[in-house]
Amino acid sequence: MAEGSRNEPAMDAKRFAALAAAYGGDLRRWPEAERMAGTIFAASEAGEAILKHAGTLDARLDSYRVDAPGKALHGSIQQAAGRHLIQRRRQRFWWLGLGLAGIGLAGGLAGLALVAIVTPEVQPDHTVLDANVTAFGDAGPDAENGEDSL
To answer: What pTM did the predictor assign?
Structure first.
């Protein structure tokens, strides 16, 4: 069967350049579905130029190395991390305290609302306050004397 009969679109320079930019100059890194068409296009002059440019970029990226950080940088990062951890612990402690206070306040308000709703209203006795009424009861002449009954 011919290559075009497998429903594969023909590779053009724009698509080839986009794949080379994304996956590099090594066709083994390309997606499996694109490798065959890429191999065919790579045989052309434009394909060779694109792969050469992508290969140069790959070599530069592969040769780039980052030096290990010095002891001073390492120490300053550890100090900053230590300060950050202490600050986060303090914040967590304060938020915990505020949360507990909020829970207590909410519980108090709920209890107050419950007492106000559940407690029946007591109708006051309609007594007239006169000279014989004290805070301990009625001291009038018809009140029972506790000492006489002993």
So the answer is: 0.41
